[in-house]
Amino acid sequence: MNKRQTRSFALISTAIAAVVFLGMTVDSHRQFPTLTNAQQITPQVTRGKDVWHEYNCINCHTLFGEGAYYAPDLTKITQLRGAPYLTAFLKDPSKFYDEQRHRRLMPNLNLSDEEIAALIAFMDWVSKVDNQGWPPRPILVTGTSIPGMDLTVAQQNATGAGNQPPAARPVSDKEDPIALGEALFRTTATPVCSACHSIAPGVNLAGPTLAGLAVRARQVIASPDYKGKAKDVESFIRESIVAPSAYLHPGDMYSASGMSFMPDTFAKSLTPEQVDQLVAYLASFQ
To answer: Which InterPro entries has this protein been placed in (predicted)?
Structure first.
């Protein structure tokens, strides 16, 4: 190839690359409104974005894989946890974590109710953006990054439980049932739910994962094969705890001869308040 041919090849290749780049740019901008759900950007979503930046959430968390990577990626958080859980967590993270025992974790930002609602609206909009699978390996939000977390000091103080099981008494105005339910889920004071059930999507242990439980519960209740008595998500979860054989999760590893492998003793070993708190916590899994 002589100099003239080399020059022509370089110019033509550059022109083709430029045309392809411009075409892809135009096509991307054409799809942006659909991919980003631009029509769903409400004043509350915009306010939530301002709250996100005002409190420098990105200094710890990531969205679409962009951020500090110190704390979990929150791109799809509202698809994993519902608004009640997120609201309770943002109001007072210390009910879910104890900084002295579990190192520095989520600080209490003292957000107002309006800021919390706006922030959740923003994150819900983010969760519905078609990010086409990015980031490929996000840090999963599982409620805690500390395996086997036991009852925190804050929760012990809140319940006055000491060495007793968490939530062993009715919930007062200052005791959030979701936080107490999470503590009960992980505590060693009762049969440990987390020993058999994962809360990460797609991770099945001795029992099926509880990720997406609320969605699956609605599907099961609507199914003609369901023979239980539950009419809504909360009653389905309660039934699954106290009468686990009322509905058998598909898969030979979870039941045999019409009986669930999950113990049927929780109706006696747990107080009604504890069952209520477990239901409140598990119903937050979207």
So the answer is: Cyt_c-like_dom (IPR009056), Cyt_c-like_dom_sf (IPR036909), Cytochrome_c550/c551-like (IPR051811)
Single-letter residue type at 133: G
Q: What is the pLDDT of residues 57-112, one digit of tens each?
A: 999 899 988 888 888 889 989 988 889 899 999 998 888 876 666 566 788 899 99
Any idea which fold 153-282 has? Cytochrome Bc1 Complex; Chain D, domain 2 (1.10.760)
CB atoms within 10 A of CB 129: 16
Quote the pLDDT of residue 45. Answer: 96
| DSSP conformational letter for 63 | E
Cβ atoms < 10 Å from Cβ of 277: 26
To which residue do tokens 């009762």 refer?
Answer: 190
Structure tokens of 140?
Answer: 């999963």
- Supply the DSSP symbol for 162: T
In single-letter form, the type of residue at position 246 comes to A
Q: Helix (H, G, I), strand (E, B), or coil: what is residue 250?
A: coil
- Span 258-272, mean pLDDT? 89
Peptide bond into 135 cis (omega under 30): yes
> With respect to CATH, is domain 41-143 assigned 1.10.760.10?
yes
| 255 SS3 class | strand
The end-to-end CA distance of the chain, in Å, is 62
Q: Are 134 and 64 in contact (CB under 8 A)?
A: yes
Check pLDDT > 50 for residue 155. no
pLDDT at 187 over 90: no
Q: What's the rounded Cα separation, in Å, for the pair 196 and 206?
A: 5
Residue 72: asked if its preceding bond is cis (omega within 30°), the reply is no
d(CA 178, CA 254): 26
Q: Is the pTM above the cut of 0.90?
A: no
Find, among 36, 93, 21, 95, the residue nearest to 61 by Cα.
Answer: 93
